[in-house]
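User: What would this chain look like folded?
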Amino acid sequence: MIKHYKLITVITFCAILSACSVYRQTVQTRSIANNGKAWASAWQQRAAEYKALCFQAYNSAHFQIDQAIKIPGTKPPAIVTDIDETVLDNSPYDAQRALNNLEYDTKTWKEWTAKAIADTVAGAPSFLKYAAAKGITIFYITNRDEDERAATLKNLQRYGLPNADDAHLLLRTTSSSKESRRQQVLKTHNIILLCGDNLPDFDALYDNKPTEQNRDKATRKLTNQFGTKYIVLPNPSYGDWEGALYKWNYKLSPAQKDSVIRAATKTDQ
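Assistant: Here's the prediction, encoded as structure tokens.
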């Protein structure tokens, strides 16, 4: 009986050690970068503060266009807006990838956009509809690909957003830079406001993969534009800030990204 008891004790102890080993291995292999993206998605979906920031941005936009349309122009007024995390909320896709410790990839992203079910960013629909009612044309400039056109329009039309048609949807062609597409709009319209979540949505100073220092320098140079002509929406999940952090090497492994984050983050030690 004593031998049987000892055998059970040994087996139980071994099982506990094995479970601890598996747990330690799981913790060690989980990416800080992706776990951070899970927290970012949770904040985007659940925090009232996130919605408050979106409402604050679009309230500022509302005030600015009211002022802008008082000034007569030689061309009709237009607003240029990004789509992802500016008009449409893709946090369900980001959360699913992060919770499974997976990186972004084009195939799964396009499977998500093909569903055309993304919700809207707080404040976006009412602002865009108000602007359209004031005679302002909306242009959607996005770095989604041409094969996402139909689903993108379907998603925008789902919420009755103005100018959600082929003529006003400018997708990525040969370059991720949006400058040439902004210039295309400027040929026929006066852009009175730009909305986006990523700084290249606003100005060519952020093109060509600038360093973190150059991004900061450009932002300081454009200080007076933010909140007046440039309306920035919060996006903690992804953007060119991440590319600059990794020195534009998106092929880094999760472990390498974790090392970069650890080295770049200020602590009290």
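The longest strand covers residues 190-196. If you want, I can go into more detail on any region.
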